[in-house]
Every structure is written in C-alpha cells, then in structure tokens.
TrEMBL record:
Residues spanning the signal sequence: none
Alphabetical list of CDD domains matching this protein: AAT_like
InterPro entries from the UniProt entry: Aminotransferase_I/II_large, Kynurenine-oxoglutarate_AT, NHTrfase_class1_PyrdxlP-BS, PyrdxlP-dep_Trfase, PyrdxlP-dep_Trfase_major, PyrdxlP-dep_Trfase_small
Record-given protein name: Aminotransferase
Amino acid sequence: LSQRIQNIDFPVFGRIAALARNKDVIRLDAGEPDFPAPALIKDAAVAAIAADYNQYAPVPGLEELRRGIAAKIQEREGMVFEPLSQITVCCGATEGLAAAFLAIVNPGDEVILLEPAYTVYTPDVLLCGGSPVYVKLSPPEFRIERHKLEAAVSPRTKAIIINSPHNPTGRIYSQEELSVIAEFCLRHNLIAITDEVYEELTYDGVKMERLWKIPGMEERTIIVSGFSKTFSVTGWRLGYVVAPVLLSRGVQLAHNYLTVGTAAPLQRAAVTASQMPADYYRTLAALLQQRRDILLDGLRKVGFECRCPQGGYFILADCSRFGWQDDWSLAQYLIEEIGVAAIPLSGFYKKYPADNPVFLRFAFCKREETIRTAVERLQRLK
Ligand code: PMP
Ligand code: GLN
C-alpha cells in the first residue's frame, strides 16, 4: 500500500456501526435521519429515472441545478455567485471537501484543523501530502481563541477549515469568533474552507453567520455544503462547493477526475429541492429543534451533562457522572448492555486530551419514538 493510505484509518462511525449491527440497538450514533425524505423530492427522482434521465450529467453539475443552488443562496443569504464558474456539484460534501483540499494543498503544506474535527479533514489533508496541525477547542465552551490559532501558524500554513454549525458540539460560531478567523486568514494569507452542511439546521432563532461575508474573505473562502442534511437524503451523496473563480476551477478539475460527475437523475431531483419555499426550511428546523429538546431533556434526566446545541444533528454529552475512564468502553457498554449506540468523542481527535472529560455524541435527527425509546433504555444507567 502507498504511504499515504498507510497514514490513514477508517473513521469511528463504521466501527460503532459494526458493534451495533444485528443487535437490538437504538441507533443514535449515525448522523442520518430515520424519518422520510420530502415526497416532492423523492417523486422528482423517480420521475427523472422513469423519463430516462440516466446518462452522464455535465461533470461540474447540471446547469439548472447550479443555477438553482446559486438562486437559493442568494435568496436565503444574500450572497451572489456565478453559477457555472463558481459552483461545483459533488458526491456529497465529502467529495467536495476532498476536491477542495486537492485544489489547494501542496505536499508539505500545513492545514489548521480545530479539534474536535469532523473525521474526513485529517485523511483529506494527508492524502494530499499535507500536514494537519491541530488547534484544540476546550470544553465545555469549545470556543475559537486567537492565541491558539497564532500558536499553530507557520510559514507553511496554507489553509484552515472550520465547521459551523459544528459536528459534534452543536456550536454555531459567533460573529466575533468568525472575525478572529478572518483576521487570522488575512494576516497570514490563508484560504478558509467552511463546512456548512448543517447551515439550515439552526435552532432558537440563533443566526448562522458567514465567514464569506467578512470583507476580504470572499476571495479566499471555499464554502462546502450539500443536500444530505437540508433535505434528509444522506444516501443520495449530493453536495456542492462554492468558491472564487480560480479556486473553483481547481475544485472542478479535481472533481472531474475523481468522479466524472454525480448521479444525473438525483441532480434533476435536487433542482426541485433547491426551489423549496422558505417554509420548508422553517418546518425542518422546527421539527429537529423539537427532537433536540426531547433528547436533551431525557439525557439530562439520566445524568448526562449537556450544553444545548444551537444547530446541527447532535448533542454532546459529558458522561463524567458515570465514572468511566474512556469513551470507547462506555460506548461499547451502552451498545451491549443498554441497547443504545452513540459516538465516542475521541473519534474526532488525533490524540484525545487526557484532561478532557469522557463525552459521547448522540444524534437527534430521528423519529420521536426512536428518541423516546433510547431515553427509556438509558434510564438503566442511573
Ligand atoms: N461535514 C460534516 C461536518 C458532516 O457532519 C458531514 C456528514 N455527517 C459531512 C461533512 C458530509 O456530508 P455529505 O453527506 O454531504 O457527504
Ligand atoms: N457524517 C456522519 C456523522 O457525523 C457520518 C457519515 C459516515 O461516515 N457514515 O455521523
């Protein structure tokens, strides 16, 4: 095997899924909805296949879809992009991230990752021959701090990646934190990749601020988002990258040779998705907020210490109360003895800090009944 492949490993999700498989386990590990996707979008996909829309789409994405994405972003965020030169439709945000890193990282370049870091960032950087440099966000706040960023930068630093709403903490970075990032990028001439896959899932009226909108950042920000979470279709593998023209050309080149494009009939259906009215987004966020509240209340009653997530799919639960030494043993006990699966936070670190409490991540993108059954089972931990 190549050195690059030997440098990476499979993420935590598959290992937890393997432990839970074929057991009577309520699955709050996976960030995937167990409720149906919108009928309108499913019907559009079925219709596209039936109408024989089954050959290659244009490699950077169906034009109508890229125009739809640009229109959606303009309408909801007031950000204006040229659809064909600035938007690339990818196989999930996952491939969009890989294409973005391939577009900008040279061997030997350093990329700053904030830990806990979503599991694909480190392997992406390593596969490009780059070096991840970690900045640890400290519990319980997990705030971005200027001095930690400054301590991580070097003449070889090329980029930083940030994710908000954040997986797994549920935080939405404040305008002040984004200003710190923007100043940092401008001072050190860095590119920012912003992973915004949970952008539409924000709760309690908290507004998600955009790094791209800070003066000077529009020419150095690569936005990665997608359809998985916004339309509850994680299995469709549809995402997109929005970037300044030069960087976007790099993303399109990488994407071209990685994939020759994403599933054509699903792109057709995604045109319908991109045209959903504002009410669709409000309803989805309200539904998820209600599920969050049920799980949050249940976890707290069992004795987990949880901050209320401002966005996304997950609650991060401090498990100190139960006296376990490490999160893997607790996660395994929950699966085998309690019948509930969750994700150990250490899966989001290269090396889990010894002074961090034991945390598990629970997903609430589930039917109410799923969450209530899980909470009922967790009572046995008390
Ligand atoms: N970024 C984050 C932070 C995620 O949580 C996920 C999926 N859970 C992705 C990217 C990848 O999303 P996609 O399904 O669009 O590949
Ligand atoms: N993004 C999903 C999560 O955070 C995992 C996707 C996967 O690799 N299965 O749960």
